[in-house]
Write a structure and sequence with these properties.
The complex is a heterodimer of chains A (186) and B (187). Chain A has 186 residues and is mainly α. Chain A folds into two domains: 92 residues, no CATH class; 81 residues, no CATH class. In chain A, 72% of the residues lie in helices and 0% in strands. Chain A has ten helices and no strands. In chain A, helix 9 crosses helix 10. Chain A is globular, with a radius of gyration of 19 Å. In chain B, helix 3 packs antiparallel against helix 8. Chain B has one domain. Chain B has a two-stranded antiparallel ribbon with strand order 1-2. Chain B is globular, with a radius of gyration of 19 Å. The chains are: A mainly alpha (186), B mainly alpha (187).
Chain lengths: 186, 187
């Protein structure tokens, strides 16, 4: 598995990837006292950015104060999870380089087929989609990593409710956007 | 800042996490949409396998006497449902979730940048809305840090058994559906 040939194989079996993510979770729980998660990092970065622009407003926001503290008494925000999030693109880049894939995507094919070649339109909807999903993640208390993966494997009720709701809405939205015919262009 | 060792461990975990998501193809828009449109079952295959291996691993180590602290998030039924629904809508539009989206930055996705900025905007917006949700939503169905096994007074192993059977059924359906779509009958 750690032979160069396996590392240079562009795509691994989803079962192998899943099993290794499971092992990674066991390691973070057992040796780091941490659960894989990503969405809290977005609150930290958004809060620190907002504090740089509007310190008084941010210092008066209880949700941000709970996460990053105040200007006077800042909490450490560069911690385990943000370090993880910052290094994820590097890990994916290594995976792509070592696998020899030169993938570049300005617009997904499926999107272009349905909504046309405008990059501005795609950017606008990507922004909106990102905003809605992170708002939902913070309302639910986690995302696909923190809830679905880490929470699901702990059998947490909250995480299974989140995951079922997420999947149902994802399927409904995808079919509403692309229809049954669009599915043939995935 | 946390101590250097914690940061280093987080960074290494992030490297491995991003690498694995890339190798699984989860850093691709088409893999995520393919799952929601039931054409590519990679996402469910990865998720279910990860939950089974990780969950059985952690509960087995605890049963064996190792002290592992659980990190269970509180149940707030209405918040979990509404948050999950919003998340699913946004994920189908963007084509990534936060983790796969960040990883996709390193796997050639140019259009995910707008999504990442949107996520930061969504986080800031939620910070403004949090007091209202705390008052109106998060108290509904607030059951605390409960698990499927604990809430039903059953064994964890029963639930992992159910999950394993469900996974085998899903993997079987996935295989049939993907085969049919790859080689459509003459109809």
């Amino acid at each position: 598995m750690t032979t160069p040939s396996a590392l240079s194989k562009a795509r691994w079996s989803p079962y192998l990837v899943g099993a290794l993510l499971g092992v990674l979770s066991v390691i973070t729980f057992a040796t780091m006292d941490k659960a894989l998660g990503t969405s809290t990092s977005f609150v930290q970065v958004a809060g620190v950015a907002e504090r740089a622009i509007a310190p008084e407003h941010t210092d008066a926001n209880a949700y941000f104060v709970k996460t990053i503290g105040t200007t006077e008494k800042p909490k450490p925000w560069l911690e385990w999870q943000l370090a993880l999030v910052l290094l994820m693109p590097v890990g994916a880049w290594l995976g792509s380089r070592m696998g020899g894939t030169k993938f570049r995507e300005e617009l997904p094919d499926l999107w272009k087929h349905r909504f046309g070649p405008s990059k501005a339109k795609r950017a606008a909807f990507a922004f909106l989609g990102g905003a809605v999903l992170l708002f939902g993640a913070r309302l639910a208390g986690g995302c696909t990593s923190g809830h679905s993966l880490s929470g699901g494997l702990q059998l947490a009720v909250s995480s299974w409710i989140f995951t079922a709701s997420m999947f149902a809405a994802g399927v409904a939205t995808a079919f509403a956007l692309y229809g049954r015919k669009g599915a043939d262009h995935v | 800042m946390s101590d250097a060792k914690t940061l280093l461990l987080g960074a290494i975990t992030g490297l491995v996490f991003g690498f694995l998501l890339q190798r699984g193809g989860l850093t691709r828009f088409r893999t995520i949409l393919g799952q929601f449109l039931f054409r590519d079952f990679t996402m469910l295959r990865v998720m279910l396998t990860a939950m089974l291996v990780g969950g059985i691993g952690i509960y087995a180590l605890r049963a064996g006497g190792m002290e592992i602290v659980m990190h269970i998030k509180s149940t707030a039924i209405l918040g979990n449902v509404i948050g999950g629904l919003l998340f699913g809508v946004g994920m189908a539009v963007l084509g990534y979730c936060p983790g796969t989206g960040v990883a996709a930055l390193g796997d050639g996705s140019r259009h995910v940048w707008a999504g990442i900025l949107g996520m930061l905007g969504g986080a800031a917006l939620y910070a403004e809305a949090h007091p209202w949700f705390t008052e109106k939503v998060l108290g509904v169905g607030a059951e605390g840090k409960i698990t499927l096994a604990g809430a039903t007074h059953t064994s964890e192993w029963l639930w992992f058994g159910v999950m394993a059977v469900a996974a085998i059924v899903v993997f079987g359906i996935a295989r049939t559906v993907e085969r049919r779509k790859a080689h459509p009958a003459s109809a």
